[in-house]
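Quick check before the chapter quiz. The format below is the same one you will see on the exam, so make sure you can read both the input and the output lines.
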Amino acid sequence: MLGLPPTITATPIARLPEALHWRGEPNDWVRATRPGQRLHSFLEGLSLEADGTAWMVDVPYGRILRVSCDGVWQVAHEYDGEPHGLLRLPDGAFVVADYRRGLLRLENGALTPILSRVNTENFRGLSDLCRGPDGSLWFTDSGRSSLSDPTGRIFRLRPDGALDLVLNNLPYPNGLALSQDGRFLHVAVTRANAVWRLLADAPDPLLPMVGTYLQLSGGLGPDGLAMDGRGRLAVAHAQAGTAWLFDPLGFPLLRIRTPGGLWTTSVAFSADSRTLFILEAQAGALHRVDLHEALPEESET
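Here is the expected output.
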């Protein structure tokens, strides 16, 4: 990555209340990913409503959480699973990318399976998802892939139910973001500490041309991604206490620190792109940054 851009600090606006902290023993997910630790939660999958309501998942404890615009927390749904990604559909339902159970639909308090296997085999473990302009669902199947086992996958579920295997050679694919016109797919490749980019409809579906769009350093690697209507890409940099904002050409605009914790997991733009919301899992906190104020010249263009 090029030289550091201006650094600012995000403002915490909501923290998971102690009444909602998990009090039980560490489960398999916690023991595998945070050995020796006891986690009160691990928040991921930030999704925003137009009125400012924020939705998110609690990965190890199977909770879907809602935070009102005035900071009131509520467990909207709880189930036996490991939700990693959350996406609101135009019909009001949610799609959940669950590490153990595949793609699920959450509607009126009920979970139903969308896709739990591929070619009669279970997924390795789903991470995140996004939706294309045509209604296709793109999702990552990371499992425990890494640089020593670069076998993570990206799938596309088309509106007619057809499933495409897009890539199968990634060291832990994670967050996804499509350009507004749906032409380019950006994927956070956590264990390579990079963001890759490819044409969403490549001329050669067997071996699509893929390039490194961003190369980060430090922390663990990129986690959640979000792209606004102006082509700016926000990146949650896991275990670096940082979110980044890049311009449409991939040049850095801002480094944003998350006070209180290093496990930055998820990002989302407000509908008007004036505000960036950031989720940090170590403290269980939601942050915000006024981009109009932080980048007045950028906001005027």
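If your answer matched, good. The chain is about 5% helix and 50% strand.
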